Amino acid sequence: MSTGGNEERKNPPPETKHSLWLRRAVIASFWAVVAFLGLPVWWKTTAIYRADLPLQDMTAWANGQVCKPIFPIHIAVQAPLLPHDAHHLIHATQQTLNDLSDFPAHQLRLVFAEPPQPANASQQVVADGSGTAELDDTVALAVRLIPVETGATPRSQLQPFLATLDIYYSPSQIPSESSTNSPLATYIAQELHQLYAQERVRLSGLYSNAASQSESLSPELAVQLQRDSARAFKYAPTYHLTFSLFTPTSTPSAWDIEAALRQYMNPILESFSGISNFTIDTQVQLYANFSPSIRQPEYDNDAKAWTIFKEDVGGFINAAEWPLSPSIGRGPTINFALYVPDEAQSPLFVQGSRDNSWLVPQWGGLMILNPQSYQATLTKEALVPAMQVFSTQLSSLLGLPQTPASLPLRISTLIRIHATSLLFSASSTLGALAQVYQKMPTIPVPDPVAKSVDLSLAHLHRACELLRDGRFQDALENARTADGEAEKAFFERSMVGQVYFPDEHKVAVYLPLLGPVAVPLVMAALKEIKSGIAAVKGR
Amino acid sequence: MAPDSTHKAALFAALFAAAAALRLLLFQAFPLLPHRLAGRVELSTPVSSFKRLQEGLYLYTHNVDPYHGGVYHQAPLLLPLFSFLPDASSSPFATNLLFTVVDLLSAHALAQIADSGHAAATRLFKSSRQGLRWSSAAIVAGFLFNPFTLATCMARSTTTLTNLFILTAMAKACQGASTTFLLALSAASYLAMHPILLFPPLLVLLYDARADRSKTTPNALAFTAVHTLGLTVISGTLLLASALLTDSWDFLGATYGVRLLLPDLTPNVGLWWYFFTEMFDSFRDFFLGVFWLHVASYTPGLTIRLRTQPLFVATTLTGIFAIFTPYPSVADAALYLSLVPLFRHLFPLMRYTFLASAAVLYASFLGPAFYHLWVYAGSGNANFFYAITLVWSLGLSIIVGDSLFAALRDELDVQRPELRDKEVKRI
Question: What is the ipTM score, two decimals?
């Protein structure tokens, strides 16, 4: 205290020792609250919680160091031969196949399967494939060797709705024990190689994208692949299909769509059920006019039909007035629109062709239907051409490859492609998350993110193993979960909140409230310290 | 003395009878009034609302966890108490009677505090103006016929129970009755949590009262240890009983967790709700901590500074609770405003009485109007009501600050009698 001695000035009397200590105790008590409770609270509540992520694993997956997917495709060979001969044939064919292979991850593996029953050729041809059903579910294709006496041999036939390739040969073509090279083995190998040509290209395309390697591709094939992938929807676990009937007049006012869908659409949807789920709705829109920007149909005397101009096809859908909402429910919507023209303008075609259906990439399909007779209700039979067109369009919108001819084979190809691309996409999402984690030390990472990452990694491992075992369906399911979890982790909402919160803003948060509180506390403490020092010096 | 005490007893009997009659008459004459008042945000907060208590009671009597709905945030032991009464919506008389009795018991405790004389003269401090005081009857009348108290009672807010236990704890501390003091304070803390902060000043008060009575000073450390242990044991027993009643410890999160973390931002007369509606999410926890520490930090400072006037410290703390706790209501202010008249001797030293009373009156009249404009008429917004709660808090803070100043000035007068009635400047 600076009260010592100066009697002239009217200084207040010195404080008593008691009140001095009392004041110090009060100030100390406030500071004790700040220091022992306030600071820990500040530390605890403003610390950014960052759950531990397995960064190394995530980066390793993104760099493709953990899993190099391989595609062992098991092909069962059924031959009415002695086991010894059959094994010899398979061995020779396998060797030829290995020599042909230009993509080592894609491995065709032949296994010998006992033929279901010894029977003669004619019965075998008409067999309903019950033999293949008994095989192990990892078998992707069955090759049936069928001895025939007549016709050119060897020749092959692919069952369109079964994963079965029939090879007709004459018994004399069975390679003998001594020969290392046989025309039949070479033929089978080449057939198989050809069968999987497109799949190999697409898979290696995914590979080269993922590992950014350059590989030589024939230009026309590359263009076709690009076109196919531009058309197809991005993979989703659920798609929503909308079937719409548009007509510029009041007829037809109803359609027998439910029965038509059941009969013509359900089979194809069922075959896709291993890949995605589908939900369906339908609608009818009467008095649906063209948008004013396109020209009205004109009558073409040569073709004896009404035509719309080719340039107008792009604007055919009147997006402003036709109720084709972009997305209903979960997953992307695939639209199928059936346009029945005015009776007075029927038949209606696109100019210069008799083709009256077209596909809008990543949106859906359209068809102009010119019915035989105008009735209030479009019958199931009248809808048959539309259903055929729509199912073809659906296949290409879902990215189903064009070849080979057998549907089960194409679907299993699609499964492998999706499994692989999901695997790569999940890996790269995880890698991106790892990068974000490392590059932005200020974003919080809550526990659910770490949980999703762990789940995603576990499913990735499982998917990779299943691919190696040739269980592609299960692999797809695991890859799907892995991808979903990875996306969930990456797009966690609470992570983005603080990304754009610079440190300067914290001043604005803290100062208005804590500043006024802190000033008297700090000033009081400083004053006490000063007077304390002065008292020590004065002594 | 005898005629005087019978006279006083008759006066109190008349006061209590009048207060009870007034309450019961209002309950009977306006059967819809309690319902209307219970819906007012000024009177019913999420942690004290009678409607929420009824919801909890319904769930409890139907064997559902009362905290499942996320509506009920009050103490579990209230449930068996109220489940003994007949249903309040069909036959409200018993409930109304209960709340009336609670108010009368509070008034009785207040009378005991006033009679003890601890407000102006304690063991270590005698105010130079200790002759200047109101009679306990006047103070009790000021409590019983205070419109805020009356409205709280009519709204049947459970804060009245908390207030009863706080007043009882103060009364028992003034009388030096350890066990009842501990029981009452534990009950108050159990119901509302923040009254635990009254423990230090009231412990000092109890110590002084005990020393006064026995003319010896007990060992301060042992005294503190014993009473802290007693408080812990009784509070622990209450919590354990609650856990046994609800079969789980989940009630802690639903009652005290709600008070600590403020998940329900229903407007009230306090300062927290608006602040936290505007808060950045990432700083919410931090500022919850800051606000709570702000409330808590007054207890040690005031107890140390005004160690000689513990009853005044406790009173000031109830005022601070009425301003700075997360879910304050008019009921908390009613408690504080009923305790302030005990310190009649400080009134001549207070400088802003007009400003404070004007602010409180202004807020009491305009608050409901602005709330109506915001919520019902839609011609105002949240800022209208918040501005009024700021004025309300300002009024209460002026009373708190002014009375603190007066208490310090009073202390100075005792220390340096020559300065009495002179202008002083704080240095």
Answer: 0.76
Tell me which of A180, A200, A220 is where a domain ends: A200
> Strand A348-350 relative to strand A305-308: parallel, antiparallel, unpaired?
parallel
Q: Using an 8 Å Cβ cutoff, are B271 and B86 in contact?
A: no
Residue boundaries of the structural domains of chain B: 2-419
Q: Specify the long-range contacts of residues B186-192, CB closer than 8 Å, at least 24 apart.
A: B186/B231, B186/B234, B186/B235, B186/B238, B187/B238, B188/B162, B189/B235, B190/B75, B190/B77, B190/B235, B190/B238, B190/B239, B191/B74, B191/B75, B191/B78, B191/B158, B191/B161, B191/B162, B191/B165, B192/B47, B192/B159, B192/B162, B192/B259
Q: Is A26 on the interface with B (CB under 8 A)?
A: yes
Nearest to B304 among A29, A514, A517 (CB): A29
Q: Please compute the mean of the pLDDT values over residues A116-143 and round it to a whole number.
A: 53
Contact with chain B for residue A523, Cβ under 8 A: no
Q: Answer yes or no: do A39 and A145 share one domain.
A: no
Q: How far is A117 from A124, CA to CA, in rounded Å?
A: 9
Give the gap in angstroms from C-alpha A507 to the nearest C-alpha of chain B: 12
Distance between A433 CA and the closest CA of chain B, angstroms: 21
Domain count, chain A: 3
Flag whether residue A37 sits within 8 Å of chain B, measured between CB atoms.
yes
pLDDT > 70 in chain A, percent:
87
In order of B401, B415, B425, the CA distances from B419 in angstroms are 22, 9, 11
pLDDT along chain B (427 residues), means of 10: 76 94 93 90 92 92 88 92 87 92 95 89 84 90 94 93 96 93 95 94 93 85 94 96 90 92 90 88 85 91 90 95 94 94 91 93 93 90 91 95 92 78 53
